[in-house]
Amino acid sequence: EKQPCMPAQPQRPLIIKTGVQFTTKVRLLVKLPEVDYQLKVKTTFDKDLPPGRVRQFYILTSNTKAMDIEDFSNGCLSVEFRHLQLKEKKYINGTKGNEALLSVTEELHSLSFEANFTVQGLTIDLETCSLPLVVISNVCQLPGGWASVLWYNLLTDEPRNLAFFGNPPRASWKQLSEVLSWQFSTLAGRGLNKDQLGMLEEKIFGQHVSCSDRQVSWSKFSKENIQGKNFTFWMWLDSILELIKRHLLPVWNENYIMGFVSKGMERALLKDREPGTFLLRFSESHLGGITFTWVQHSDNGEVQLNSVEPYTKNRLSAVPFADVIRDYKVISDGVVPENPLKFLYPDIPKDEAFGSLYNSQRSKVFPYLPFTLIPVSEIQFDKQLSLVFDIGTLELVSYHLFTCSRKLK
Amino acid sequence: EKQPCMPAQPQRPLIIKTGVQFTTKVRLLVKLPEVDYQLKVKTTFDKDLPPGRVRQFYILTSNTKAMDIEDFSNGCLSVEFRHLQLKEKKYINGTKGNEALLSVTEELHSLSFEANFTVQGLTIDLETCSLPLVVISNVCQLPGGWASVLWYNLLTDEPRNLAFFGNPPRASWKQLSEVLSWQFSTLAGRGLNKDQLGMLEEKIFGQHVSCSDRQVSWSKFSKENIQGKNFTFWMWLDSILELIKRHLLPVWNENYIMGFVSKGMERALLKDREPGTFLLRFSESHLGGITFTWVQHSDNGEVQLNSVEPYTKNRLSAVPFADVIRDYKVISDGVVPENPLKFLYPDIPKDEAFGSLYNSQRSKVFPYLPFTLIPVSEIQFDKQLSLVFDIGTLELVSYHLFTCSRKLK
DNA sequence: ACAGTTTCCCGTAAATGC
DNA sequence: TGCATTTACGGGAAACTG
């Protein structure tokens, strides 16, 4: 007889990478009347999974271990498997059909544990298994894996529905937005506010008028690309989470990153502000990018908004973001480089906001002269020209450029 | 009977990393009278190596394969082993003594090949083996490995002296300097000239007067740290080779990097030159660093030399070196940032030399404003003060600084 | 040809051994 | 404890494979 009476703890990791070690632990919650012999537990990956539909994996390393009395507890029996490693079963006879068209991160797998013993002439089989697991072969598949874990946890309480992604349910925006906000708060201690979530809602549903509580399909969330882009909604959001984790934690936690702002909203917010007012916003066109947009007034009083080319993780590992804000310069008329960033929206003086976050790591390597990398934008000739055509003062500006180029030499 | 009549070709790789695949090939040079059966070759690593003295490795993957007629040749038999992989033999009983105090990159190993066949009732054993091989477990051991390969090739013609580093011979400077120059020319197509080699000679022997042709010990070359540094001569030189390979190839090949110049020589060369004359030199204090030193005249006509903090591979992957030269700025009096680099020694205008090497990759990501990272050095307050004490104009300069700080705001 | 997926392996960091 | 060496694995790129 089979008794599912051995509650398992191995709810983590939920994503396992082949060839990378993981650890799992099972505990026996009932006290056995007699345990005068070693109670061995065997762990199996993809047990009872019919071959053909999905990839199958097995545990490359030793998979059987005896239970032991837990150190710090009420004498429970438990066993911890360490250094477990997964490898894919390769079928010579191409039985792998995969008509279901599931991507690898939609395949759900599981880890089973079995033990059996005889008490009073009765053989008892214990068995339990983990929550569904996603198996990946490269870290570049992690975002896809997290999408699946998120969707599963959000939309079902079933402990082991491995066919979940065969026909995944929709999520209401209310449910989803809570989970998305939670992604940010667990990462960084600060979730998303109403305005930020509003921008995400608009992004996922399009700019229609918001009706009560719309449904998001799994496909919309993580399979279809965003209109006009070559990445999905979740890929985009996850790339931002990674950027925050790696490069923007303090700035994010201080609430200095508005982040999710549509271009229209950005203009509405900035246009009546003091010149030099800026806000920080994540790029919508590039994965994992952050930019700043500032307002300035042209000579004839016209309001202009400028955004810098988005900073990605590569750039930010050369120059920390707070320092970028401190040091950024624009050479707009070719004479004196100036930092256009003065006030963080709505009106906080830049240094007041970011002062404590600057890294002034002057590396004292006598006798060398230390240097700092300073990001500089130059208003280019061709760009100026197009500007000029707009405002109809071609000759004047050309002349100006000519004198500039002399001064630069 | 054993006949060493199967000349082997596997002289490469000379350094093998455990767990990383390598390939080797053997060819049979004699024509066999009858080959009506498959001639199998077995390859063995560390065959006949007595256990105890050094680490021992074995071939993890399949090590036997049948010879075949070579595709494009005179019907020679040959066999190529692919996907070979090495793993260390672990001895439970700690037989590994290693009293010899050899480091892992001084241990020499070998790859053996065996085949046997019967012809006219006579059993013939063929056997051959590779040149000595160094086995490493991490790429951070590569420089040590190359040092060994270089020293072995330079100083012996023996095909299989695995005890070579038990008592390694010395090299004459003449021999060594040729090989060092050759390292640069194979890497980049340009070797070292007499002046550069002279600096290296001085570095390895100290600043004594040069006698005819001194001997360099293996220890001096690659085991003892350079006086006052925490790296060896070869580690330092190899870090420079890597820097050139990864970031400086065009500049090196154009002969714009003087590179190996003592500080004394640098001063002698630059002091009578036009202000703004600079040269490029590898850092002697940091591994894999390059710096530029320029001459300028202070207001009272005194000659000053300045060097920028060395650029290492990390910095150079954020800003290409030619662009650094183009863009570098110094804010020396707080007013206008200026590029102090005008003429490449002796008198080549900077843009004439480097113009074709600049990367003006203006990333057109409309509507964003692209930026360039510009390295800027600022003559700091405390440094200025110490300067001031030197030339005795404290009050004047302090006043100057005060007005500067106003202008900067 | 191509996209989805896996393998390969450098290079950094952490763990291990001596 | 400290140094030498190995192991672990993220991340970019190449190789694979239907």
Question: What are its keywords?
Answer:
homodimer, 409 residues, alpha+beta, 11 helices, 29% helix, 23% strand, DNA-binding
Topology readout:
The structure is a homodimer of 409-residue chains.
Chain A: E1 2-3, E2 15-17, E3 22-28, E4 40-45, E5 57-59, E6 64-66, E7 68-69, E8 77-84, E9 86-88, E10 111-119, E11 122-129, E12 134-136, H1 142-155, E13 171-172, H2 173-188, H3 194-205, E14 215-216, H4 218-222, H5 233-253, H6 263-270, E15 277-282, E16 290-297, E17 303-307, H7 313-318, H8 321-327, E18 329-331, E19 343-344, E20 348-349, H9 350-354, E21 372-378, H10 381-391, H11 394-408
Parallel strand pairs in A: 1-11, 2-12, 15-19, 18-21
Antiparallel strand pairs in A: 3-8, 4-6, 4-10, 5-9, 7-8, 10-11, 13-14, 15-16, 16-17, 19-20
Helix pairs in contact in A: 2-5, 10-11
The first copy, chain A, binds a DNA duplex (18 and 18 nucleotides) through residues 17-21, 88, 94, 96, 103-104, 136-141.
Subcellular location (chains A, B): Cytoplasm; Nucleus
Keywords (chains A, B): Activator, Cytoplasm, DNA-binding, Nucleus, Phosphoprotein, SH2 domain, Transcription, Transcription regulation
Protein name (chains A, B): Signal transducer and activator of transcription
